[in-house]
Amino acid sequence: MSVATTGGKAGKRFQHGNSWQYHSRSDRHSKIACWALMFDLLKRSDLLRAHAASGKIAIGINHLMRDFARNRAKDLDLVVCLTEPGATTKRDFADLVDDYVIVLTDTEQRQLAALPRAPLAVPSTVLVALEAKACMTEFIKARPRLYDELNSSHLTIHGDTNGAIAAGFVLINTAETFVSPIRNPWSLAEHEAVVSTHRQPQEMRSMAAKVAELPRRSSTGEAGFDAIAIGVIDCANDGRPVTVKTEAPGADFPAIFGYDLTIGRLAQLYATRFASV
Fold first, then answer.
1. How far apart, in whole angstroms, are the C-alpha atoms of residue 132 and residue 259?
2. Phi and psi at residue 168, in whole multiples of 5°?
3. Do residues 57 and 127 touch, judged by C-beta distance below 8 A?
4. How many CB atoms lie within 10 A of CB 89?
5. Tens of pLDDT, residue by residue, the chain (277 residues)
6. Sequence-separated (6 or more) residues with CB below 8 Å from residue 237
7. Are strands 177-179 and 57-67 parallel, antiparallel or unpaired?
8. How far apart are CA 189 and CA 210, in angstroms?
9. Contacts of 19 (CB under 8 A, 6+ apart)
């Protein structure tokens, strides 16, 4: 799957007329990451597709969940919820392709068209909650912030609904250089770019190790994520193509954080936890 390289709707540009493949002050990358994960989960999970086909589930975007014990609230990127009468809209999961300017291959378009409709809704009872984060540069500074944000996600999800599946996805950059929108607050057509340099693969591996410290759980009633995936890309953010490092699981971080294994784990958890829905 590929994505457009502008900052929102096709043709939209950020301040100073620049286009960015990644911008830390936009949530578009996290929305697309969660959409892609849900797309792959729908393809993998027979039960999730059956629930969508029978109208039992819907999709919520930027859903506010609240930890009952601590009264802590947090917006989750994407959730799967039970369908409530009058809560759904005429729009569905497939409509987000245009909203987020997601570019699909011909095969992916056919796969999406074959999936049952999953309407967008104002969620009530959450079954699955997804949170995505990215670390593209300034890795040392980003480590504690990324950990704290993700750790608060699973705590809030399970503080709201203990039986919900809490899933995280972290995208880590392995590029040796990066053009940061924050460090380049001017038109790049008129000013030479300030380019940050990284010590790779050390910095990418250090960030992956920090993600691996996040609590994980194997059953309800415990604290931690039910599943976490780490994705590694090479993104210099200078207009050159972005590539995926497919050999990372097992080499740069434990294989349990591999994307394919995570999708399989989520499908298995959904099948066992919500068979009676």
1. 13
2. -120, 150
3. yes
4. 11
5. 333 333 334 334 577 888 899 999 888 899 999 999 999 999 999 999 999 999 999 999 988 888 887 888 888 999 999 998 877 788 999 999 999 999 999 999 999 999 999 999 988 899 999 999 999 999 999 999 999 999 999 999 999 999 999 999 999 999 999 999 999 999 999 999 999 999 999 999 999 999 999 999 999 999 999 999 999 999 999 999 999 999 999 999 999 999 999 999 999 999 999 999 9
6. 20, 21, 22, 136, 175, 178, 179, 180, 181
7. unpaired
8. 37
9. 5, 6, 7, 13
Structural contact between residues 200 and 260, judged by C-beta atoms closer than 8 angstroms = no
Instruction: Indicate the DSSP class of residue 194.
Output: P
CB 37 within 8 A of CB 64: no
Instruction: Classify each residue of 32-68 as buried b or exposed e, where b means 16 or more C-beta atoms within 10 Å of its C-beta.
Output: bbbbbbbbbbbbbbebbbebbeeeebbbbbebebebe
Locate 179 and state its tokens. 């053009």
The pTM score is: 0.91
Residue 209: both structure tokens together: 């190790």
Which secondary structure element, helix H or strand E, spans residue 76, and what is its range?
A: strand 72-82
Name the nearest CA neighbour of 258 among 244, 275, 243.
244
Phi, psi of 170 (to 5 degrees): -120, 125
Sign of CA dihedral 31, 111, 233, 148: positive
Q: Is 63 helix (H, G, I), strand (E, B) or coil?
A: strand
Locus of tokens 């999800």: 157
DSSP 262: H
